[in-house]
Amino acid sequence: MTEYFNEMFEGREVRPPYAGLDGWMREMPAQLRAMKQAEAEALFRRIGITFAVYGEGGDPDRLIPFDMFPRVFTQKEWRRLERGIKQRARALNAFLNDVYGRGEIVRAGRIPARLVYQNAAYERAVAGFVPPRGIYSHIVGVDLVRTGPDQFFVLEDNCRTPSGVSYMLENREIMMRMFPKLFRENRIEPVDGYPEALRRTLASVAPAKCESEPSIAILTPGHFNSAYYEHSFLADLMGVELVEGADLFVEGGFCWMRTTEGPKKLDVIYRRIDDAFLDPLCFRPDSMLGVPGLMDVYRSGGVTICSAPGAGVADDKAIYTFVPEMVRFYLGEEPLLENVPTWQCAKPDDLKYVLDHLPELVVKEVHGSGGYGMLVGPKATREQIETFRIKIEDNPHNYIAQPTLALSTTPTFVEEGVAPRHVDLRPYCLVGEKIELVPGGLTRVALTEGSLVVNSSQGGGVKDTWVLAE
Amino acid sequence: MLSRTAENLYWIARYMERAETMGRLLEVGARISLIPSAGHGYRSEWESLLQASGTAEGFAEKYGDPVQRNIESYLFFDRDNPSSVVSCIERARENARIVRTAISGQVWDALNTAYQEILQIERQPRSEWELTELCEWVARQSALLRGAMDATMLRNDGFFFMNLGYALERADNSARLVDVKYFVLLPSVELVGSGLDNYQWQVLLRALKALRAFHWAYGGEVTASKIIDFLILNPASPRSLMSATRKAMHHLDNLARFYGDAPGADLALLHARALVKELEQTEVAEIVDEGLHEFLTRFIGEIGQVAALVQRSYLSGEAR
Predict the structure, then answer these.
(1) Exposed site from A110, A410, B167, B250, fewest CB < 10 Å?
(2) Do A4 and A422 meet the contact criterion of CB atoms below 8 Å apart?
(3) For B74-111, how does the pLDDT look when each residue is reduced to its tens digit (9 = 90+)?
(4) Number of CB pairs, chain A paired with chain B, less than 8 A apart
């Protein structure tokens, strides 16, 4: 059986970051716990922090299960992660700048041209255009997993519009409200500076044509979107408008909002819709969500779009394997955060290894997401493995393989008391005039015993994530 | 403010007012159904309630004969009925969810709590709820929302748009409420109505929580002309057409001033002013001469016109 790293207990010893929680956990009577859990749920519902799921029947306002047991990092652990994430965010932006410009990394033979220029996420429409400050991805969500005291791996990068930051903020609010004593006893770095930092980041990339205080808005697909709560939450905390495509129009080289006082100019758009829906004239002609003509205004420097259209080319699974290479190529540094070792079935040697070790590996489609079209070797039947073998042999370019990771666990409240459950971590890195991270992130937890899948669609929950002050 | 935000705010109020009216209508129906009718059995006002709420057609399509239990669930719970209490509260809350950032926390709380509670009520078996209790619950939610608005909202355009929504919806609903009863009042306007018919009006006043106000304002016997005056022309009566129209005018005026419009620039305001002026110069006898039904139909049209002008000047984001 695999040994999993438990972030709180080393044998029977409590690891230092969790020292402040041991007593809290032991002293809490079951009754109080149940009461607090119910209180938390009522708060989430009352505030309206729900994950709206339409068209599947049942309650459209679902709650993501909230686990009250915090996940804790020491200042030292966090510093290391922070440096690694910032480094990665710089490299990813340098890469985007490069592939929409001269393409040095391709010319140098470090990344195959095919993977970049024939990538579905590569936007020809912005080739040659340099966005303000040369930044493409303004919010980089880096998904991390841990397998030991010092072993962290990057599972994937999210350069487009990583979601979930509202949970990071609300989980903290609710914990502070329910357990103020814990926050007096443990010195915990605050995360509530995030909205202001995000606003500063967005303001710092206003287009050159913007001469006054930039006007900023979040562009949402609308209230039926599952992340709508987050969009409105962030707009509120930043004090910016929350707009839909129909609220905007383009005229005279600028983008305008329809307001009760007539048109008002918009300088920076933090969009939470995909590239394909931004502008029906440039991308999908059937899109109702976007703004006709927006891309022309963008390319002529009338408005900044965050993240920049085309940023997605940096975060797919095939490009992922080259991120350490990007760090070396653009920054001349060694990567501080490791990738999960990845075999590319397109390479003959890798392919042979993968086919010989299928029962131990996780095999993924290059363009797949959300856990679809993948093989989890240790959990698959022989038949499933053989079916997958044929698929890989048929089209090796379409697959990558990774070892099955022994994800760390943290104590989690379950029916019977407290038990270890597997977790991952998504911090949010902001890239503008400065590169910054708030100390914390979103911890997702697989609530089902033994499960390694933390996705909320498959029984995952969330936790408050602490970084202890020095 | 985004035009769409203004529109959402305006509709939050319209839907909540509509939900309240529906609750009050149901209360009227429930009371009247307890009164023995002239022949045998009990009186039924359900038919006229369906008409007053503009839901008669939809109901007939779904259920056919007006059976009390069906009417109750159609007017209160049915999501197929866009005017049911549940539909209205759900939409008010959805509009609020869209513009959460433009309302105060307490206003959101009032709407969201109402919605969460209605989901609870829906889960209970039918036999456990009492119609009158439900109607009172609706009135209470509406009052909570108005209280939260009044206590916590900034007096800016958002506040004015919400109040405008309230006023226009109330003007329209009050007119419809009176309209459905006009056949009871007329053609016997010169006479004192029969005891039973007056009883119906008393029930209506009671449902509007206005019976005591009516007595304070007029005293003595309940007559047709007093009732017409009270529900249409009396500026002291909070649900009269006069009050509602004046309130709409007041908030249009606030908006014009808030936006620094040139006097006379806002067509909706001009129209509302003209309507108020007309009401001020109207006497009960003139309404009777024109025909109560004709007068009310015309009034409903005028209010609709004001709403259309509001749409054009503020909510489309283009005209200004």
Answers:
(1) A110
(2) yes
(3) 999 999 999 999 999 999 999 998 998 789 989 999 99
(4) 61
CATH number at residue A297: 3.40.50.11290
Token pair of B258 as six digits:
């808030």
Q: Hey, how many other C-beta atoms are within 10 angstroms of the C-beta on A185?
A: 13
Residue A54 has pLDDT above 50, yes or no: no
A199 inside domain = no
Residues A109 and A255 in one domain: no
Domain membership of residue A310 (yes or no) is: no
Burial readout B198-214 (b: 16 or more C-beta within 10 A, e: otherwise): bbbbebbbbbbebbebb
Let me know whether A71 and A148 are in one domain.
yes
Domain with residue A377: its CATH number is 3.30.1490.270
Confidence of residue B318 (pLDDT cuts 50, 70, 90): low
What are the residues of chain A with a beta carbon less than 8 Å away from any beta carbon of chain B?
45-46, 48, 59, 223, 228, 232-233, 235-236, 241-244, 246-247, 257-263
Cβ-Cβ contacts under 8 Å, B6 against chain A: 260
Are both A298 and A320 inside the same structural domain?
Answer: no
- B189, B288 in Cβ contact below 8 A? yes
**Which residues make beta-bridge pairs with A399?**
A365
Same domain, A268 and A290: yes
pTM: 0.83
**Quick check: A247 and B3 CB within 8 A?**
yes
The answer to whether residues A28 and A81 belong to one domain is yes
Cα separation of B299 and B240, whole Å? 12
What ipTM is given for this predicted complex? 0.72
State how many domains chain A has: 3
CB contact under 8 A, A243 and B6: no
Rounded Cα–Cα distance for residues B210 and B207 (Å): 7
Give me the residue label for tokens 């929409």. Answer: A100
Beta carbons of B240 and B248 less than 8 angstroms apart:
no
Q: Residue count of chain B, please give it.
A: 320
At B58, give phi and psi (nearest 5°): -60, -40
Question: Three-state SS across A282-314?
Answer: CCCCCCCCCCCCHHHHHHCCCCEEECCCCHHHH
Quick check: A1 pLDDT over 70?
no
Co-location of A290 and A182 in the same domain: no
- Asked if the Cβ–Cβ distance from A48 to B100 is below 8 Å, we say yes
For B171, left (φ over 0), alpha (ψ -120 to 50), or beta? alpha
Q: Where are the beta strands (DSSP E) in chain B?
A: none
Q: Do B1 and A232 touch (CB under 8 A)?
A: no
Q: What is the pLDDT of residues A293-309, one digit of tens each?
A: 999 999 999 999 999 99
Tell me if A396 is assigned to some domain: yes
- Residue A164: how many CB atoms within 10 A of its CB? 18
- Rounded distance between C-alpha atoms, residue A174 and residue A194, angstroms: 16
Residue A419: alpha-carbon gap to chain centroid: 26
- What is the spatial distance between Cα A307 and Cα A310, in angstroms, rounded to a whole number? 8
Provide, as residue numbers in chain B, all residues whose Cβ is less than 8 Å from the Cβ of A235.
101
Token look-up 């329209």 returns B172
Q: Do A260 and B1 touch (CB under 8 A)?
A: yes
A256 and A115 within one domain: no
In angstroms, the Cα distances linking B193 to B201, B207, B215 are 10, 20, 17
B113–A260 C-beta distance less than 8 A: no
Please give the residue range of the domain that contains residue A357. Answer: 342-403
Q: Which of A363, A384, A403 is the last residue of a domain?
A: A403
What residues contact B277, with CB distance under 8 A and at least 6 apart? Answer: none
DSSP labels for B269-292?
HHHHHHHHHHHHT--HHHHHHH-H
Q: Tell me: do A106 and A222 sit in the same domain.
A: no
Of A361, A382, A403, the domain-final residue:
A403
What pLDDT is recorded for position B193?
Answer: 46
